[in-house]
Amino acid sequence: MANYNKYPQEVHDFVREHCEGMRDPDLAELCNKELGTNFTPRKMKCFRANYGYKNGLGRWSSEEYQKYQKRFPKGMHEFIRDNSWGVSSKEMADMVNEKFGTDFTPARMKVYRQRYGIKSGVTGWYQKNHPSGNKGMKQEEYMSQEAIERTKATRFKPGTIPPNTKPVGTISVVDGYKLIKVKDKGKRWEMWKPLHRYVWEQHNGSIPDGMLVTFKDQDPMNCDIDNLMLISRGEHITMAKKHLRSKNPELTEAGLGLVRLEKVIKDKKKK
Fold this sequence. Notes:
Largest sheet: 3 strands, antiparallel
Radius of gyration: 37 Å
Strand order of the largest sheet: 1-2-3
Distance between the termini: 92 Å
Strand content: 5-15%
Number of strands: 5
């Protein structure tokens, strides 16, 4: 631990008199110059803290940090700040390395600019209405003949079916529900249907608007027709609020019967 009692009274008086409004690097340099001391910025900070000599300054601003830091060459921060717009991280890293002799990689440059809020305006993806780089060009103009030949082996031929295509009738589980593939072409929701709705429709026809198919035992994996029941959205909400659902199918059916009975009584009272 540093012994600050070795400094004479004139050092204490000098620091106390000059510290207000002055950062430790500048104060250490001034004190060393005037009194021949050997303060480093860190030693000066500790010296002031030990004896309560306050400079009245808060945390360093970004500009102050760049002024006093010794990790990067002087002027580098300003160069990056003033030349970043429209320049990618790779291009900026190359420019800085050439000018200041640093060893920035594109990844480090990206992190540096993010840390100090330096924006480039380069997103890395095509903006809306921005033409692609090879628009209007023939394949031979932007690819070598060797590269073109390599792509032929992986091109889809007309009518080719991808090897991972699932056949109609395949059952898959997505987000806790079973889906069944009903057709090979169309949009995803046209090719795949919830299995419980599909099973109900196979036995009872199309599902009316505003009606839901739910599971009597609350198990979405059990899509057997005997475990399915058709209820309205209002009935669904009421059963949930009154906790009338059960893992026992008979109790769930009884709960639905109670909800429907209460609605009949309520409607009759209104009349």
